Amino acid sequence: MSGHSKWHSIKHKKAKEDAIRGNMFGKLSRMITVAAREGGSGDPKDNIALANALGKAKEYNMPQDNIERAIKRGTGELEGVNYESAVYEGYGPGGIAILVEVMTENKNRTASDVRNIFNNNNGSLGESGSVAWQFERKGLLIIDMASIEDEDEFMLNAIDAGAEDIEEEDKKYIVKTDPTDFMEVKKYLENQKIKIESSGIEMLPKSTINLSKEEASKALKLINKLDDHDDAQNVTSNLDIPDELLNEIDS
Questions:
Q1: The CATH number of the domain covering residues in 1-17+84-241
Q2: For 238, which of 61, 137, 227, 246 is 20 to 30 Å away at the CA?
Q3: Average pLDDT of span 63-77
Q4: What's the half-sphere exposure (Cβ side, CA atoms, 13 Å) at 67?
């Protein structure tokens, strides 16, 4: 995962802030509803996508009542909106590539909204396939290093469970898996009482781009605007921001 430095940490921090404001629960509800409907089951034991969505909901302390309603909407026990998935591709300041994964009941409206956000924030919406080739879908788990007693044993057992790669970053272990092995690795970590701070199956950049402070600040503004859209489920970029530059922008 060389070159992917800081991106997941930035996303995780923003997601926590969104959860505090309550913005995250609506997005999680959509994820759960679609997973239950498309997976053909409201039981996470028989539906890997639903199990992943429920794990994400647990990370952000989503109320159980909200979770149960979302599942019932997906299985048809409750009336609900028929959401569709879509992916938009575009470019940001400095030529960075951006993927926007959405769930929407109105693709035309969402496409127009996403285009306007790109245009109004120094970016441009691209054609389908224009940047997707620069990313790959992987399982990603962020682990608190303080919860690991034996580093060597942890790494060996995680790799035996299916982990492809493990790196250290900001006192965290970043564990990458093939999507098909994601739940197995996650179950192993949970059984070992290892603290998982964030997890999910995401599109990760194959390589990254470093920008100047000014361009990186503009890029983060665009990415945050896209992520704040109600229909956005996941926004991914190949932007890489060193610690010192991220601290300067935050300040």
A1: 3.30.70.980
A2: 61
A3: 90
A4: 18
